Amino acid sequence: MSALWTAADAARATGGTARGDWAATGVSIDSRTLAPGDLFVALSAERDGHDFVAAALAKGAAAAMVARRPEGVAPDAPLLLVDDVQAALERLGHAARARLRGRVLAITGSVGKTTTKDMARVAFGEQMRVAAAVASYNNHWGVPLTLARTPPDTELAVVEIGMNAPGEIAPLSRMARPHVAIVTTVAPAHYAAFGSLEGIAREKASIYEGLAPGGTAILNADIATAGILRDAARAAGARIVTFGARGPADFAMVSVTQHDATTVIEARAGDHAMAFRLGGVGAAVALNALAVLAAAEPLGADADRAAMALAGWSPGGGRGRRERVVLDDTDADAALDLIDDAFNANPASVAAALDRLAAIPPGPGGRRVAVLGDMLELGPEAPGFHAELARLPSVEAIDCVHCAGSLVAHLHAALPPDRRGDLTDSADEMAARIGKLLRPGDIVLVKGSKSAHTARVADAIRDLGRRARRPA
């Protein structure tokens, strides 16, 4: 494998001092997942990365980027000494972008960033060499890390950009300098930091500030704040391309048909009709796919080929993947279906997940069951956001809603009594009793914010199947 960063290149990019003549084939911030040949970046977050430099070098790291030589590391160890590791990583990201010969697609939005990024990787991967962010690496260290990992001969780099507070997206977009930037949607996520949907929209729209000259802004025409996105795109001098399902759009949804494990989509791009299939289910993911196809032409790709490739996409863990959980190995019918959408949650994503659940028929004798955890970072209006979910039309088709958390208790109180399931103070309590709340034939959605630990309920449901396979 050719070198991604030589000692001289990395020193020049970061302004640091290289010790040793090393060459790195990758970049890592986690000694647990580091591959031999990686440059280990000793970031300080919850723990000081310098504490893991010795372990990283022992595991085969080519070198470590550090602000000091840590204890237990030999004086002649391969190092890149910098003034500040976070700042040096950002400089490495800038340098990687400067030498990149291909195009860049940047993606943000309140819902669907990672899904859209993963779709783009699949959609365009058959037409060009694609490098994309790993997992949800979309913050102040995730974006420069993604760029630093991108080989210079990459033809398309896909960068995911997120935010928790005002002023975070524009600097990351300027670092990525995308040729195309997508805003998937604007919804009440991180509402506490902005206080209004308009404030969130302005922050999301700031991704267009980083567009390369002649760049393309892709936006969701269906949302109430589309005008804010349009104004920001015009101010950036961008070409505007829209997608949507409810009105005029450059890429317009005609129909969405959901099956057990796939979604069939009909769409139009001007006079051009498109029909394609996704390896995942939901109207929301269908719109994400349309956003990806809207990016094809400005990225130099063929939209029809990209649409056909999307059949190979499927949702990642915790993002709506449907799984079969066999409860009794001696009885093929003793099973339930789990929809694990527990990676994160806000009002828009929960509504989309409930719509999906409502569209799926349960098995014989089963029910549609939702297990919901708290939606966090919604500020003083959080109780109202939770209670409003009870008024969604999809709730009428759901047999039972179990709630785990103090905020989602407001939803529990607002639900019709015949749909009101168990209420617990935490996801751990719900996980401990979930086996008594489900039965064969059920289709079960698990959804909640990551910090509410709702994923533990999904794990407990999987464990019902594992226990069934254990010998007595």
Automatic annotation (TrEMBL):
Cellular compartment(s) = Cytoplasm
Q: Which is a Pfam family this sequence falls into?
A: Mur_ligase
Which EC numbers does the record give? 6.3.2.10
Reactions performed catalytically: D-alanyl-D-alanine + UDP-N-acetyl-alpha-D-muramoyl-L-alanyl-gamma-D-glutamyl-meso-2,6-diaminopimelate + ATP = UDP-N-acetyl-alpha-D-muramoyl-L-alanyl-gamma-D-glutamyl-meso-2,6-diaminopimeloyl-D-alanyl-D-alanine + ADP + phosphate + H(+)
List positions binding ATP: 109-115
Gene Ontology cellular-component terms for this entry are:
cytoplasm
Report domain Mur ligase central positions. Answer: 107-296
Q: In which pathway does it act?
A: Cell wall biogenesis; peptidoglycan biosynthesis
Enumerate the UniProt keywords alphabetically.
ATP-binding, Cell cycle, Cell division, Cell shape, Cell wall biogenesis/degradation, Cytoplasm, Ligase, Nucleotide-binding, Peptidoglycan synthesis
Lineage: superkingdom: Bacteria
User: Boundaries of each Mur ligase N-terminal catalytic domain copy?
Assistant: 25-93
Q: Which InterPro entries match?
A: Mur-like_cat_sf (IPR036565), Mur_ligase_C (IPR004101), Mur_ligase_C_dom_sf (IPR036615), Mur_ligase_cen (IPR013221), Mur_ligase_N (IPR000713), MurCDEF_CellWall_CoF430Synth (IPR051046), MurE/MurF_N (IPR035911), UDP-N-AcMur_synth (IPR005863)
Q: Does the keyword Protein biosynthesis apply?
A: no
Residue span of the signal peptide, if any? none
GO molecular function list:
ATP binding; UDP-N-acetylmuramoyl-tripeptide-D-alanyl-D-alanine ligase activity; UDP-N-acetylmuramoylalanyl-D-glutamyl-2,6-diaminopimelate-D-alanyl-D-alanine ligase activity
Residue ranges occupied by any Mur ligase C-terminal domain in the UniProt entry = 335-449
| ATP-binding listed as a keyword | yes
* EC category name: ligase
Which processes are annotated in GO (biological process)? cell division; cell wall organization; peptidoglycan biosynthetic process; regulation of cell shape
Q: Main role? A: Involved in cell wall formation. Catalyzes the final step in the synthesis of UDP-N-acetylmuramoyl-pentapeptide, the precursor of murein.
User: Per the similarity annotation, which family is this?
Assistant: Belongs to the MurCDEF family. MurF subfamily.
Q: What is the name listed in the Swiss-Prot or TrEMBL entry for this protein?
A: UDP-N-acetylmuramoyl-tripeptide--D-alanyl-D-alanine ligase
Q: Name the species this protein comes from.
A: Palleronia sediminis
